UniProtKB/TrEMBL annotation:
Name of the protein in question: Phosphate transport ATP-binding protein PstB
Matches recorded under CDD domains: ABC_PstB_phosphate_transporter
InterPro entries: AAA+_ATPase, ABC_transporter-like_ATP-bd, ABC_transporter-like_CS, P-loop_NTPase, PstB-like
Gene Ontology cellular-component terms listed: membrane
Organism domain of life: Bacteria
Gene Ontology MF: a single term: phosphate transmembrane transporter activity
NCBIfam families from the UniProt entry: 3a0107s01c2
Length: 275
């Protein structure tokens, strides 16, 4: 078989398998013709992306191409910047989140976020995880204890901290702090977890732990992760979006992006020719 027909076959198979999968999977976020400006700076240009539930979607691209801006539009964080203007639409579970009537508090209880630098509160490990549930009015100690344990187990850090739950979270290592932040996120029982370069400040061992965790979490959550690490995107994601200068150059199944990209710029980026 010639290379061209082999490639066509691979493409055909992947279209087939992704269609089959997508028939069962629901869209969590639908982004339509999204444009975003910081003052005059056009940071996101005509973005069209559908994020499916219980999948890991990776966002890759060189520095300054709009990755963080995009994921911060998904929980309406970027709108806190006064000079931001937006056009187009983002719907979450079928409702427009850019609509003024959509309550941001409702969105934040469904969508958790983990940042590049672990950002625990200056409180005990226990109080970090119990923070969200307490805000939602849960006061019963037994219930809080259960939520704290379940969330810390879910974030694969329970065994490391169970003897020191009432010590300050700042005493944990960076990798432990990042998993604690993931536990804090799980405690509100979100639907979606947004992660902006969650392992860039971690050593290889902690990175591996967080990657294994993401793999586990996708059974129950939809995850969108920004990463500069190509191997990581290839290892952990189902779909990959390649951003460049505020545009989505290519969005497809991760194995297609990494083995048979359509656009030359995607190939150049993933093979390390720029960025
Ligand atoms: N608060 C802000 N005010 C003005 N411009 C901003 C702001 N935040 C980001 N930008 C600009 O928007 C563009 C996209 O930035 P963004 O942080 O989304 O990039 P990124 O892809 O996440 O980059 P990196 O990989 O370095 O984190 C850049 O040109 C940046 O300077
Ligand atoms: Mg960024």
């Amino acid at each position: 078989m010639g290379l061209a027909s082999k490639k066509a076959n691979v493409a055909f198979d992947s279209i087939h398998s992704s269609t089959d999968k997508q028939l069962e999977k629901k869209v969590v976020y639908d982004t339509k013709d999204l444009n975003l400006w910081y003052g005059k700076d056009h940071a996101l240009k005509n973005i069209n992306l559908s994020i499916y539930e219980k999948e890991v979607t990776a966002i890759i691209g060189p520095s300054g191409c709009g990755k963080s801006t995009y994921i911060k539009t998904l929980n309406r964080m970027v709108q806190l910047v006064p000079i931001v203007k937006i056009s187009g639409d983002i719907s979450y579970r079928g409702k427009s989140i850019l609509d003024k009537s959509y309550k941001v508090e409702d969105l934040r209880t469904r969508v958790g976020m983990v940042f590049q630098k672990p950002n625990p509160f200056p409180k005990s490990i226990y109080d970090n995880v119990a923070y969200g549930p307490r805000i939602h009015g849960i006061r019963n100690k037994k219930i809080l204890d259960e939520i704290v344990e379940r969330s810390l187990r879910g974030a694969a850090i329970w065994d490391e901290v169970k003897e020191r739950l009432h010590e300050n979270a700042y005493g944990l290592s960076g990798g432990q702090q990042q998993r604690l932040c993931i536990a804090r996120c799980l405690a509100i029982e979100p639907d979606v977890i947004l992660m902006d370069e969650p392992t860039s400040a971690l050593d290889p061992k902690s990175t591996l732990k967080v990657e294994e965790l993401i793999h586990e979490l996708k059974n129950n959550y939809s995850i969108i992760i920004v990463t500069h690490n190509m191997q990581q995107a290839a290892r952990i994601s189902d779909k990959t979006a390649f951003f460049l200068n505020g545009e989505v150059v290519e969005f497809d199944d991760t194995d297609v992006i990494f083995s048979n990209p359509t656009d030359k710029r995607t190939e150049d980026y993933i093979t390390g020719r720029f960025g």
